[in-house]
Design a protein that fits this description.
With about 300 residues, the protein is mostly helical. It has a domain of about 130 residues. The longest helix has about 35 residues. The protein is elongated, with a radius of gyration of 32 Å. The chain starts with a helix and ends with a helix.
């Protein structure tokens, strides 16, 4: 027996709403293996379903016909036999789906199945009975429409914003919402003004060059680049952590070191370069048009951007 069929056969019998998602995945695997999922998908309106094969009619033998008529009858009989075999196979698969539904449904719900004869009718009922309500699904869809391509508010914590954005995306993925297919493009639109250079590179790769990126990888790539160009966020966390650690250990609360005089020489030059880095990245748009190949070879870090800008 095929491994997908074996996996579809295993599992608890459907009794509670908490079991629906796993149960539905199993019936979907089984129906696809039987090549009838398009005939029974409960997410599709009945009028939009693929129509099942109709039982073919046997051609009538031409009594008293000439040789030409008999030859045509034999040709139609050959076609009839092929159509009949195809119809029988599909009908057998639909019967198997019906049997699977009953066998994998808790007996307490068997009575409710008497009102439905087709696999489609039964799955629609079970989805209404056990599946997530359409209202909850529409709520997540509305939240995603509002949040997906919207940039974070000024002054908000970027890490927290990323985590909330991705958590909402995961909910949409679990519901198999079609809007999730454009999650990468939505994320790029949302962070465009935060890291213009990073956005330009990823826009070219994903949108123009059609590169395949897992959304989670794209998010972490952005997170790392943002932290590299905004080290003050990390230093703030570090200062808080030191103070908290000292207090927990029973020492006096850690105090920030007294401000030092203005750095001199090369140190001052490095700090000024980093300070002006973000302001100067806008000039990279012109640089990209002049030497885009060179820019693609540069890792997106603060140090490499400084070296490139100084050329």
């Amino acid at each position: 027996m095929d491994s997908t069929v074996v996996s579809a056969m295993k599992g608890e019998k459907l009794k509670e709403p908490s079991q629906w998602r796993n149960w539905f995945a199993r019936i979907k695997i089984y129906a696809r293996q039987k090549r009838v999922w398009e005939l029974i998908d409960p997410h599709t309106a009945e009028e939009d379903l693929e129509k099942p094969i109709r039982k073919p009619r046997r051609p009538q033998y031409p009594e008293g016909g000439n040789e030409l008529a008999k030859r045509e009858w034999r040709d139609r009989m050959d076609i009839y036999k092929l159509d009949l075999a195809e119809w029988e196979q599909q009908n057998k698969s639909l019967d198997a789906i019906n049997e699977w539904i009953i066998s994998n449904l808790d007996p307490v719900h068997h009575t409710s199945m008497l009102n439905y004869e087709t696999p489609y009718g039964r799955l629609v009922y079970l989805q209404t009975r056990f599946g997530r309500s359409s209202a909850a699904e529409e709520d997540i869809r509305a939240q995603w429409k509002r949040v997906s391509a919207s940039p974070p508010k000024r002054g908000s914590d970027i890490d927290q914003w990323i985590n909330e954005w991705d958590a909402l995306r995961e909910q949409g993925v679990s519901l198999d919402l079609p809007e999730m297919k454009s999650a990468n493009k939505d994320f790029l639109r949302a962070v465009k003004d935060l890291l213009p250079v990073w956005w330009q590179l990823k826009f070219e790769a994903i949108v123009l060059n059609q590169e395949e990126w897992d959304t989670r990888d794209l998010i972490e790539n952005f997170r790392g680049s943002y932290r590299e160009l905004h080290p003050q966020s990390a230093s703030t966390v570090s200062t808080i952590s030191k103070a908290s650690f000292s207090t927990l250990q029973g020492f006096d609360e850690a105090r920030p070191e007294p401000p030092q005089g203005k750095p001199q020489g090369q140190q001052a030059q490095r700090m000024n370069t980093r300070k002006n880095l973000i302001m100067r990245t806008v000039h990279l748009r012109g640089c990209m048009h002049r030497s885009p190949r060179n820019l693609r070879k540069i890792p997106l870090t603060a140090h490499s951007l400084v070296r490139f800008l100084q050329k």
